[in-house]
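Final report, closing paragraph on structural work. Over the funding period we assembled a curated collection of sequence-structure pairs, and we close with a single example.
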Amino acid sequence: MYQVSVTSRTTPNEQIPCADLDAAVEVLRAGLITAVAPGRRILWVVRCPTGRVVRGDITINTPTADPRVAVAGHVAYVRDVLVGEHRSLTDPAPLDEGCERG
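Its predicted structure, as stored:
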């Protein structure tokens, strides 16, 4: 089971359980869209069933009419990290140790 939390000064720090990777990514996307505002730093954490923890943050510095556009690229990158296609600079796990096992 995945667990996702999205935190900003306006959102509570709650861990939301998700059955699979797609659900976790959707919860992350929805949480970011809800919390995003110009200049607000949003912290997020995804805990994977394998025990791996992937965390990061995003700050949107310009006003946007559609928050979905502002977070789309960030969420796509996070999904790639979760499946092991990319490695963030703060993530010491090797590429073949993504959240999903093939």
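The chain has one domain: 2-82. Helices lie at 21-35, 67-82. We thank the funder for supporting this effort.
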